[in-house]
Queue: 3 jobs
Job 1
Amino acid sequence: MPPFRCPLHSECVATILVTGGAGYIGSHTRYFLEKRGYSVLVVDNLSRGYKEAVPAEQLRVLDTRDGGRMEQLLRDERVDAVIHFAAYISVGESTQAPELYFENNASGSLSLFEAMLRAGVKRLVFSSTAAVYGIPQTVPITENEPYAPINPYGESKVMVEKMLEWLDRYREFRSIRLRYFNACGAEPEAGLGERHDPETHLIPLILRAIQTGEPVTFFGNDYPTPDGTCIRDYIHVSDLAEAHIHAVEHLLRGGQSEVFNVGTGTGHSVKEVMEAVERVTGKKVPHEIGPRREGDPPVLVADSQKLQAALGWRPARADLDRIVSDAWQFAQRAR
Ligand code: UFG
């Protein structure tokens, strides 16, 4: 990344507000924004985030749906741009209570955008997902793949993406939508890593199996892939965080709205992830093979050429053993 020069101000640095900054990807992005020299503020209602993941002086415990207080904060702190992570992220939960996802993710985002418009803040980076594509027609997936979500979580993100498309057209509200593939890894030196409750993601579950001896269940080994297990594009959370910094700097420089996939372009099967964990930890992974999980496409791999060409971002930590090693260091500290 080029050396830091505030894209907006000559004598001070831009102020970036991070919603959901006490969560997994938000806390890493906050950390890298601060390292780069920005003035950073976090808004999080702590319903699922961890307050230890944010320096106390940067944290405002607040819900993005509280439009009045959000507007006031945006004005008082002279916020220049918002990076919006605050959302629920569990596919399974979204199928049990879709209304939760429409209320928190879609309606919560709309409240935030209304407050931003009232406060005159019109630059936003949005945390979107590969789940907007559902089961893709073409892999690697480009941004031209149509919206086809297969669960309410993905639908809630499509709803927000569509709001942003219209706000761009009619309200000069500029946004970058980043569609992440499988976020993983950690920044153990900073005390940051993945902690979901309940945990549903593959790498932390495999590491937990090693720590507890309780087997992890792999969902199916009869997929049309070389080893029969599903293939995903695992992207280090710190690479993802840096993609947000490229995106927000594009907006601060007056750049246009865009949508980008964020992945490494390389797929790894569940079995390959397990083997990487065994290499890194030197331990066998207790596991069993269960039935397929509903809604799991066999292969999801990103084509992220567009992001690389437009903003000069590169995944610097794409090596699977590196990803697993960072996650393992964090898991050992967190216990
Ligand atoms: N898996 C298992 N056992 C587990 C958990 C996962 O075998 O206990 C497998 C899954 O079947 C899948 C792979 O590991 O093949 C990765 O699963 P994750 O649950 O870690 O991640 P997903 O690919 O299901 O989900 C990710 C993001 C979601 C997003 C989705 C888009 O975490 O937020 O991609 O399709 F919605």
Job 2
Amino acid sequence: MRAKMIKIDPADPDRQAIKRAGEIIRSGGLVAFPTETVYGLGGDGLDAGSSSRIYRAKGRPSDNPLILHIARLEDLYKVAAQVSASALRLAQEFWPGPLTMIFPKTREVPYETTGGLDSVAVRMPDHPAALALIRAAGGFVAAPSANRSGRPSPTMAAHVEEDLGGEIDMILDGGMVGIGLESTIVDLTEDPPAILRPGAVSQKMLSACLGRVEMDPGLEREDGGLRPRAPGMRYRHYAPRAPLTIVEGERERVAAYVDSQVREKIQQGQQAGVLACEETKDLYQAGLVKCIGSREADDTIARHLYQALREFDQEQVTCIYSESFDTPRMGQAIMNRLLKAAGHRIIKLPDGGDRD
Ligand code: TXA
Ligand code: MG
């Protein structure tokens, strides 16, 4: 049976719909719901069976822990064995919001939810429908992104239906999400605190609150000796079906290089997609060019990235080229996802400069 799709007003969701969805989760079922970052696949996070169902529905490796979503700060103490002063400061500053924190877990939290770890990831989303659902479901909703494992995270209900419609009970359709990339994950159990996954709450914002905050060195390279500390960041992820290559350098040079590659592919009978932005889209002459936003307002790029990757899949392109989006605010998060989608395939073109 396909999941029941119910449209809701994200700012003021229908109470009956939320109540039904809450009952489904309380009785061990799965409901996909919108958050401010991406759609989540929710189940009862304190119930081992529900968490196991989430892994099965997504086809997710069982050692990749889930994020536990709460709606009230006091509920944190039921699942976190220790809450440091720094954690509390971040919660006060950024919750509800796109920030996930890692805590030592209490016995209430089953190992099925934490992928066998003694720590638990907790977040309070900034979305009225998500918060209402968490309350209706009993307060503790385990929710990974609602995509089939390995696919780009869903930024609208149709993406969830496409990936998981046959596996889950209900989808709450609250329209397109606001941010479009998953929450920042920060580990405060070590000193200095480390960002395990960059997101809309940036390193700069965290440092302004806590002082020194590091990026997990394991994020930097894929094949280095260091493994990312968040298990989920170790998998190839966020990936479109066609191989993606990032091309970095001066705008005109990038466009000329991409054009030449795309023309070559087209001659071989392939279909090529290009990820570009407002500032550069007119420089490209070949291939299926998608403008995903503006560098000036880089939240627009974050918001449309996953959608564009999914569209390329549907349009059956056989290869994708993207410029690098090392923009000031969302750049760390955008490039982290883009590099993963590309399997770290990046071509750095030399600058033209005076040598020409
Ligand atoms: O924005 C988000 O965080 C979305 C929405 C739905 O809230 N959720 C999300 O969940 O992105 P998911 O499961 O797709 O990603 C969770 C990430 C994984 O990389 C996982 O390994 C990491 O969080 N994680 C969870 N618990 C952890 C823990 N105890 N220690 C380290 N990493 C953890
Ligand atoms: Mg995910």
Job 3
Amino acid sequence: MKGLLVVVSGPSGTGKGTVCAELLKETKNLSYSISATTRQPRVGEVDGENYYFLTKESFEEKIRENAFLEYANVYGNYYGTPLGQLDERRESGEDILLEIDTQGALNVMNRCPDGVFIFLIPPSLHELECRIRGRGTESKDSLEKRLSSAEEEIRIGKKYQYVVVNDTVSKAVRQIQAILLAEHCRKEKDWKIEEVLKK
Ligand code: ADP
Ligand code: 5GP
């Protein structure tokens, strides 16, 4: 059975990276799609593990080569999902997790309507600000860009199939696992019926 394409989005600082890392650790058969970006690596980030860090020129060359499922300019940098082995991995039954911004997710909704779209939100805007500030990774300018687009971004969550509040990481992970289980049951319904009728 073809694997799920799972898309997780949410405003910067909501906890996508944290929740997705825990989800990947705790979920069998789910693997991460490593994005490409032109932003600078943060302390501790590893090329080919967190992102493929590319120059603007080589990113634009890949756009011309149609090497991305989707790409977007987010807070002044390019981010994109490499097509790579995505289809082959799904065909072999692997579920693939994409952690991408809302523009990219809306493009994937058009290109892959069979995807599972999950929007992660913080418990409040105040908590979101505390989390981004607490992470301590953003310059003043980058922080302002991220905070000023947060409210509008959260509203885009209405276009997703699911919204999960990242109150505690473990609760958010459990909810996403429940969504994936239900989506597998949905996907397998016709196959289950045929299997029973064969016996
Ligand atoms: P994103 O990937 O959405 O930008 P991160 O995963 O980097 O967000 O999380 C932003 C900050 O919030 C990090 O410092 C992280 O440790 C913290 N964080 C994530 N989830 C929670 C949570 N449920 N409760 C408290 N802090 C959290
Ligand atoms: P960050 O710089 O905090 O790692 O990511 C900034 C934003 O870019 C986040 O909302 C993240 O989900 C998004 N992002 C990461 N990878 C991709 C991608 O491949 N495509 C798109 N469209 N957005 C991405």
